[in-house]
Each structure stands twice: as structure tokens, then as C-alpha cells.
Design goal:
The chain has about 190 residues and is mostly helical. The chain contains six helices and no strands.
Length: about 190
């Protein structure tokens, strides 16, 4: 049995605990600077948990689940919070959440065949990273001054590219599954 009490898993768990605080800071008191700080710390610990897992050889199935879960929850919390504040239009949230729903249905179909997951590929990881850069930049883009102006431009560039990559990643995952000759929805 793999030890789940590892430093990388503790970091991933800490990231998960930060999600509701991050969300509340944006929609509640509008403490955007503090919310961005939590997001930056989360991004650093995301990198650190992967680095430490490799360096310390501390891999676990729990870690494989916690890390992408934290990523997805930060993206979802950012989308909902930024839409609630009218910083993002609703179509952005719909585009990203609908892709996740498609992939959830695909994974449910795979489970019926005894497959619990598919290998993550570079495009999927890169798309998630694009979104994890884009959403804080979009929030920072609401700040006044030159920094806010530049962040707004880069945030939207990363966001639009991230949405395209996110959907392209889904297409690649589905092609990967089709190559296994599995009928998902029969």
C-alpha cells in the first residue's frame, strides 16, 4: 500500500483548502490582491508538489487525483467568481464548463469498461496552464494603471488561446480513446 501521508499530498490538500477562501475573497469583500496572492501561492505549490513527488519518489494515486482536482476547482472558482463580478462574460464559463462535462461523460463511459482514466497529454496540461495564467491576469486586468492594462491584454490572449487548447485537448483525448476501439455510449 502506498503511503498517502506525503509532503506532495499535503501541498495538494493545502491547495484544495485555499479554493473556498480564494472564491470568497473575490465575491465577498472584493479583496482581489489577496485572492491573487492565494492563487500565486497555489501555483507555486502546484509546481512544488510535482517537483517533490519526483525528487522524493513520493507518488500515490491520491496525489494523482488531488493535483488535477485542485487545478479544476481553482479554474471553476475563478470562472464563477469572475462571472459573478461581471469581469468575465458568461460564454467563457459555458465554453470551459461544457468541455469538462463532455470529458466527465467520456470518463463515465470508460469506467463502464473498467478503465479509470486516460494518460494526460501535453496539450491537456498546457491548456490547463494557459487557463491558470489567464484567469488571474484577467482579474489583475481590473486593476487601474499600466499593470492592469497590460494584464488585461495578456489575460484575454491567454484565455482565448486556453479555451481553444482546452477543447483541442478534449478532441485528442477522445481520439486516444477511439484508438482503443471502445464504444463509450452503447
Amino acid at each position: 500500500m502506498t503511503n498517502v501521508w506525503t509532503i506532495p499530498n499535503a501541498l495538494s490538500f493545502a491547495r484544495l483548502v485555499g479554493v473556498p477562501f480564494f472564491f470568497w475573497l473575490i465575491v465577498g469583500p472584493h479583496k482581489d490582491g489577496l485572492a491573487l496572492t492565494i492563487l500565486i501561492i497555489s501555483a507555486f505549490t502546484d509546481w512544488l508538489d510535482g517537483y517533490l513527488a519526483r525528487r522524493l519518489n513520493q507518488f500515490s494515486r491520491l496525489g494523482e487525483l488531488l493535483d488535477p482536482l485542485a487545478d479544476r476547482l481553482y479554474v471553476a472558482a475563478s470562472l464563477v467568481a469572475l462571472c459573478m463580478r461581471n469581469i468575465l462574460p458568461l460564454w467563457v464559463a459555458i465554453a470551459l464548463i461544457s468541455r469538462d462535462l463532455v470529458m466527465a461523460a467520456v470518463l463515465a463511459g470508460l469506467k463502464r469498461h473498467g478503465i479509470t482514466g486516460i494518460p494526460v497529454h501535453f496539450v491537456g496540461k498546457a491548456a490547463t496552464m494557459q487557463l491558470l495564467y489567464a484567469l488571474p491576469l484577467v482579474l489583475l486586468g481590473t486593476f487601474s494603471g499600466q499593470v492592469g492594462h497590460v494584464a488585461h491584454i495578456f489575460g484575454w490572449a491567454f484565455l482565448l488561446w486556453g479555451i481553444c487548447m482546452y477543447w483541442y485537448g478534449a478532441v485528442l483525448y477522445i481520439q486516444q480513446i477511439r484508438s482503443l476501439n471502445i464504444k463509450l455510449f452503447t
